[in-house]
Specification:
Layout: H1 3-21, H2 38-58, H3 80-97, H4 114-134, H5 143-156, E1 175-181, E2 187-193, E3 196-200, E4 210-214, H6 216-223, E5 235-238, H7 240-249
Parallel strand pairs: 1-4
Antiparallel strand pairs: 1-2, 2-3, 4-5
Helix pairs in contact: 1-3, 1-4, 2-3, 2-4, 5-6
């Protein structure tokens, strides 16, 4: 997917989020985000939109020293769904006014403005799924979008230790884990080394030490901790202790 597609998908995913929560009881707990209600989830997602939009406006070239941003929250939580829609509209305007290929600081691999659009997309998508799950709905995720989301997650996870400190323990003496789509030809091979981990060039003929097989959508939700690897949705092969180590330390 390209930045224009990511930008369009932010809008589409927000529309789905808003449709799910508008008219719902916003005090409903969100099981996949322990301690949060739908109001918390909606406020968080809109806050991310507005914060990332501010970073893009400023096109920062180094880590920000403050996260202060005018959220313009409604007086009552009943207004959160409309406020979230407005947050996405504000983000869309910023995307349109920004050269998304321009160099820019980002915490992940891609040091361009487009990083933040792609990151906003999957933040929104996963929390849309959280909202639907909280309401007893079964989230559907487009396969191409899910595939891009798995790639985005695994590409950037090695750089997430500042806010996901357990990832610093994802080390092993040269072991590999493959995440393999059952509804496409996409595979990702993660190499764990004594000094860290990263995606590595995948030799499809090489046998990984452990493999997780599932649909792209299920793999995406699994990586974000929204599905249990023990679910019938997955086939787990190889070193189960290595997989346990991965999932115990890869929380995002």
């Amino acid at each position: 997917m390209n930045p224009a597609e990511h930008a369009a998908a932010v809008a589409a995913e927000t529309d789905r989020f808003v449709a799910a929560v508008k008219g719902a009881d916003l005090s409903t707990p969100v099981p996949t985000c322990p301690g949060w209600t739908l109001a918390d989830l909606t406020r968080h997602t809109g806050s991310v939109h507005r914060w990332f939009s501010e970073l893009l406006r400023r096109r920062i070239q180094q880590p920000p020293t403050s996260r202060d941003v005018d959220l313009r929250l409604p007086a009552d939580s009943d207004g959160y769904p409309d406020w979230l829609a407005e947050s996405a509209a504000e983000a869309a305007a910023v995307f349109a006014a920004t050269d998304l290929e321009a160099p820019m600081w980002a915490w992940g691999v891609d040091q361009h403005a487009r990083f933040w659009v792609r990151r906003m997309l999957f933040e929104t998508l996963v929390h849309r799924a959280d909202a639907e799950l909280a309401l007893g709905l079964s989230p559907s995720i487009d396969r191409a979008l899910a595939t891009d989301g798995v790639d985005e997650f695994l590409t950037n996870l090695p750089f997430a230790s500042s806010f996901a400190p357990l990832t610093a323990q994802l080390r092993a003496p040269h072991r590999t884990i493959r995440f393999s789509c059952t509804d496409g030809d996409h595979d990702w091979l993660v190499g764990l080394r004594p000094d860290g981990f990263a995606l590595v060039a995948d030799d499809a003929e090489a046998e990984a030490d452990a493999t997780v097989r599932g649909t792209a959508a299920d793999l995406l939700l699994l990586l974000y901790g929204r599905l249990d690897r023990g679910s019938d949705a997955f086939r787990l092969l190889g070193d189960q202790e290595l997989l346990a180590h991965w999932f115990a330390h890869s929380a995002f």
